[in-house]
Amino acid sequence: MLSPEMNRMLTRVENGAPMGNLIGRFWIPALLSEEIAEPDCPPVRVGLLGHRLVAFRDSEGRVGLLDARCPHRSVDLFFGRNEQGGLRCVYHGWKFGVDGACVDMPSEPSTSPMKAKVRARAYPVHESGGIVWAYLGPGQAPAAPDIEFMSLPESHVYASKRLMRCNFMQALEGSLDTSHLTFLHQMNLMSKDVFGVGDFQRFSDADGAPRFFCADTPYGMSISARRDGDDDTYYWRVTQWLMPVGVLVPTAPGSVCRANFFVPIDDRNCWWYRIRYQPERPLEQEEIEEYDTGDLDYSRRVPGTYESIGNKENDYLIDRGKQRAESFTGIPSAQLQDIAVQESQGEIADRSIEHLGTSDTAIAQTRRRLINAAQALEEGRMPPEALAASQYRIRAIAITLNRTRTFDEAAALAQLPPVQGTREKMK
Amino acid sequence: MLSPEMNRMLTRVENGAPMGNLIGRFWIPALLSEEIAEPDCPPVRVGLLGHRLVAFRDSEGRVGLLDARCPHRSVDLFFGRNEQGGLRCVYHGWKFGVDGACVDMPSEPSTSPMKAKVRARAYPVHESGGIVWAYLGPGQAPAAPDIEFMSLPESHVYASKRLMRCNFMQALEGSLDTSHLTFLHQMNLMSKDVFGVGDFQRFSDADGAPRFFCADTPYGMSISARRDGDDDTYYWRVTQWLMPVGVLVPTAPGSVCRANFFVPIDDRNCWWYRIRYQPERPLEQEEIEEYDTGDLDYSRRVPGTYESIGNKENDYLIDRGKQRAESFTGIPSAQLQDIAVQESQGEIADRSIEHLGTSDTAIAQTRRRLINAAQALEEGRMPPEALAASQYRIRAIAITLNRTRTFDEAAALAQLPPVQGTREKMK
Amino acid sequence: MLSPEMNRMLTRVENGAPMGNLIGRFWIPALLSEEIAEPDCPPVRVGLLGHRLVAFRDSEGRVGLLDARCPHRSVDLFFGRNEQGGLRCVYHGWKFGVDGACVDMPSEPSTSPMKAKVRARAYPVHESGGIVWAYLGPGQAPAAPDIEFMSLPESHVYASKRLMRCNFMQALEGSLDTSHLTFLHQMNLMSKDVFGVGDFQRFSDADGAPRFFCADTPYGMSISARRDGDDDTYYWRVTQWLMPVGVLVPTAPGSVCRANFFVPIDDRNCWWYRIRYQPERPLEQEEIEEYDTGDLDYSRRVPGTYESIGNKENDYLIDRGKQRAESFTGIPSAQLQDIAVQESQGEIADRSIEHLGTSDTAIAQTRRRLINAAQALEEGRMPPEALAASQYRIRAIAITLNRTRTFDEAAALAQLPPVQGTREKMK
């Protein structure tokens, strides 16, 4: 439960709001690489932290992320021509490079000093894991974190996204909340190993009241949730919160890993980025097809878009007969179930009327961390997590351990060995 | 004509507005019984006085009307499972009975005291006449009024509703206003006895300037409108206003009776509940079909909804050729004609620019009564009409009387004899 | 570049805003004559300067332009019956003539004095050039200007309109801005003489940085834009700004002329009226077909409406393949190209973030003139341009002149000889 003021602090990102400023200090997903697949392909719209941007890939394959408004008279650069070496506004032909420099201004005399002075607002980007990452904060961008999937071969990674018509925080909270697996996603789990936890599923199904142990880390928080396993074991799920909007979701050792990022478009909409990665082998064709067009785990999308076919207007395709007989919700796919309940909390959930329990421990701690960091930044103190690029050698894991083992020991198993060699960072 | 301030007082119902508080002190229709026809059927959404609610029928047939937001973290209980003995939220499995008590909280340890403390906000309901009535006010609900159709056999009553995209007050005013019959509904009346007034139709058609006599009553107001009849008679229509939002509409003695309730969903939308009842016999199949799927009196609805096919977006299906040649408006069905003109007054009509005439007498008096009662309630004085449950032994009537008879005598004929025995009231 | 305050002053027209007041002092297009083609035809909705109006043609062919709200209880007169000699509200039958007088009030006793007192708000209108012009200001309307097309035979004139979902000022600025021809409309121009400038097209295509010379005139401003022509010539385009919202667009001598009017519906929507006229001969059938249903210059419209099929929701039908290979934008028709970029500047463009160049000279001067006139009117000084009805003997022209000739000489060539006889003005 939060006061209305603290809820506002937690959720609002537009127009210089503290939480928007905080998130701006981190590298966040801006779009999928596939959205601008080829050099000189059409530009695409990008909404990020309340900013209206346009992304394009230039003739040399470099990505530009510009304020969508042409500096001349604000025409939308989305309609622009992506030409040799830059994006040209169609109104008067002003052309900008990926760095925002004006490379042509044909509506002014060739002697005009304007061309050298006018720049489009451009943001630093960096591409890895099938995602174009952006830094929207002031000053020099910090080093980008090296999350495991970022340096895997392309063949090992599958990135996707879906639109959510609610504040990012509801989506983030859902991803940190293992308790709801027992309910919301029940039955989905019977037919197939949707969550990649195999035999452990029966422990999730049986125990809806996990006990939470949270530990602050340099990158955010390690969240260990303990359920009863067999007689002498506990079933542990160690979730990693990557401050501010990332989550590594537990899967069983050896299975496909998953990461989520919940990126605010504005106060009332966000993108759910979802990355599947298999550190040990390329993803199989069958796996990719399930992610791309399946309907079990992923919400099916409107062709040509990243919006779910199931949505608020059609009650997320709820089938009341199936809700009675087949699945807990009657809503197809685990992802759409999440979208349904999280959007249903309201465009921006009112956290002043909640009743939190012990199963909401991780959520409460995450909120506090975020609010504290946003307040500190307002007072001029940088979030140290934004400068912790080298600290991301972790996974999320699902395991059973003897009941004598503690949560520290569970969390320790989620550490990865240090990287061999160094990875080049982009600015 | 009202000042902008008085118009606001008259029309606004959300967020503790005085008129919303006043209406909350009365029993009002919340939904049709048919919307939750069977025990354990899917829950349905209910919007009432700005509140977002969910209604369901439990395994024993009892109706629950709860705040739609789960007390845990505000997930919409509309997506809930209506299970044995209660409605279960799909996010974490919290389950609530019709009284709002939490009967299961499986995401918390079984020893947690939370389950006993947390309650969903539940509202008292009562079912009669094909309608689920609700009391949204504070404290103990008063006795429910015994309007004639409420204690008739089911076979004698037909209840329906239609969405109106305007403030409830415009709809209520239209129902109290017999003058418009002469114009808006003209021609509809030629082919069939839509309004159940038979031969009297020619008097309505001929005289568009009725004289109004209003008398305050314990339940609201008795409104006698006098038109010229034959040489030695007047044609009287005695309408009953059931404070705050109910109306009994005159029909000829012996014919099917009609009642209207205009229930605010919020400031800019309302439900038009319409009840047909025949005190003397079951309704005939043909009558019910006309009410259900006809297009003469009732606005045809979008299948599976209570919204009219004709609406603001399609100009209420106006046919200008028919307007010229066949009916006064070119709009099909008397009900849709009402919806068209009343919605066209604006989402909330601006009553500061009106020019009221003598034909608006009943409207002006009703407004004053409502505003006075709302102001009195703000000052702590209960509306006596909310406690007048036993005073509803009345009908609305259409009759001709010799010109020597007064409006008191006309109104007296609308009294019903006292009930035999007593009727059980529900809370 | 304007301060936010000056931008507000320039763009806002609703609720007594200074710019709305200024525009109200001029005759502006209210609707096309074809929208109310016949006496006693159905009334139509008109939105103008934030006012909701209804237009109708009475039995004698006179046009009425009334506030859409019936003075009785605000029912929309759009649903009214256009009967012999007036428009009758369908709710209670009140009937109004084109002058707003109440000619029948059948819901009141025939002895009532109300009928003589109540009036609908009616605005002066005047019909010419296929357009119904209206005066929305206070007091007596000034004489209507005699723009050339207004007194041509009907056969010589074609008027049309399209909805634009942005503030009128962006549309007006686009029409004053010859520089964008070189870019936005490039390629359209290759296949056909869309702009009626014939051989001069190659000069427009070659020189995107015209030099602007603006001269204040009694009716507004004469804007001469000079491009390089052949070795010894300049190519001149002399555009006429008809204060406040009209533009005469240059075409080559002898070809079909064009005029634009950008009329505010409200702060965020406007009508683009477009008039084609050939002073010397009737328009040919082929020309009219191209204007009516073609797709080269005119934006194709949704049948039965004046809205473009291409619009914001479908990205103006942009075809990225054609943008690469065939036209500069990939958007069909020059008109839709204008609508696309101008709407893309935002519902109301933020002029505080612009970077204006020399090619924006005419735009900057027009803004200043409008802001000054609006401010002067607030201080009680009438805009002299509103009283300059006799000063409209001008055309817009496209010509080449020897490089020794000045802009004054170019502008002088756009003068028409004085009219023979006098033209009757309507009020």
From TrEMBL, chains A, B, C:
CDD domains tied to this protein: Rieske_RO_Alpha_PhDO_like (cd03479)
Residue ranges of every copy of the Rieske domain listed in the record: 27-134
InterPro entries in the cross-refs: Cholesterol_7-desaturase (IPR050584), LigXa_C (IPR045623), Rieske_2Fe-2S (IPR017941), Rieske_2Fe-2S_sf (IPR036922)
Alphabetic keyword roster: 2Fe-2S, Iron, Iron-sulfur, Metal-binding, Oxidoreductase
Pfam families assigned: LigXa_C, Rieske
Protein name, UniProt field: Rieske 2Fe-2S domain-containing protein
Source organism per UniProt: Pigmentiphaga daeguensis
Taxonomic path: Bacteria, Pseudomonadati, Pseudomonadota, Betaproteobacteria, Burkholderiales
